Amino acid sequence: MGVTDGQIRDAINEGCCSYRDVRNALELASQCGKCATLAKQVVRETLTEVQSSQAALAYPANFVMA
């Protein structure tokens, strides 16, 4: 289907929360499935990055209680 890693990352940034969500949104691995292993890796890495960046934003170092 020609799905790129950029499209996978975009799908996650737009709300997909799992490999299954990405697969359904992009029709990923719907033909032969050879790309599934690499796609799962990209999904895992991207979700980890998103979670890390959200955790970093949750409690900024300069937070001052008013």
Automatic annotation (TrEMBL):
It comes from the Bacteria. Pfam families: Fer2_BFD (PF04324). Its cofactor is [2Fe-2S] cluster. InterPro entries: BFD-associated_ferredoxin, BFD-like_2Fe2S-bd_dom, BFD-like_2Fe2S-bd_dom_sf. Residues 2-44 form the BFD-like [2Fe-2S]-binding domain. Keywords: 2Fe-2S, Electron transport, Iron, Iron-sulfur, Metal-binding, Transport. GO terms for molecular function: 2 iron, 2 sulfur cluster binding; metal ion binding. Belongs to the Bfd family. PANTHER family: BACTERIOFERRITIN-ASSOCIATED FERREDOXIN. This is Bacterioferritin-associated ferredoxin. It comes from Pseudomonas turukhanskensis. The lineage of its organism: Bacteria, Pseudomonadati, Pseudomonadota, Gammaproteobacteria, Pseudomonadales.
